[in-house]
Here is the input.
Amino acid sequence: MEYKGAKYKPTLTGPITPIYTIEDALRMIREHCYYFFGISFILFGASLFVTLIMNKFTTDSFDYFIHAVLFIIIAIFILKFKSRFFAVLSLLTVVYLGIMSIYLKGFDQYISKLLTFILLFASICCVRATFWYHKLAKTYVTLNKGLFFISLLIAFTAVTISIKENFFPMLAEFMFTKFEAGKEFGLTTDNNGCVEDALDKINKSRIFITDLKTMGFLNGCLITSQTTKGFCDNVPIEEESKQYKIWPRQHCIELRQKDPFCETLFYAVQVNCSDSGSMESN
Here is the structure.
């Protein structure tokens, strides 16, 4: 029987490219590991560029460097050992980074999504090719299926615990710190000054987490700042009303604020005006 794959030699393999032989699987593995190497070199370059611009090894430089090293290690194990474990690990890592990219803003978000799409394409191909390679080669690895899935479960649990034990407490601490900083700043300005400063902060911010801290800053600032006459006029405070839900967006449009977090800031203004109205009525 004539080998079907002999007449099908695409210039670039993809997730749906037929795999008939071990060579087809090896070719797909090689091609898509090169994606990981290429992205790693880009990240190394970004790390060096940021370091030279800032004249120091910043947090961004470190993140780029660590991701580059991680992708190189994964690609080496997939390429050299045809590791199904590292292929699946690459897919989980890329999905996780894709989820985290939603916390970025502006140009960084678009670049991160582009790199995530490229790596997702490559990792899916690597998973498919490594499994087909071992199926066609009829090889048996020491890591059986049970241990394989247990390892994945342990890795997922470790990441979940890490986020729960470190990320959220750290974020709460940062927001509390910004809340206190906002209260201190509020002593020097009025309500409008608090809002103007918060809007300036989100316009300069590149990361969603920074915006969350800005909200903490605004909440603290509005508590201690001097009352601006008419600040809460025309601010809907009835939560059940339709106007309450659409006012933040409309107000941001009126101010020509394109940052999506602007609406969240004005929800905080509504809450503050609602609390102020309750205190005055009491």
Q: What stands out?
A: The two ends are 90 Å apart (CA to CA).
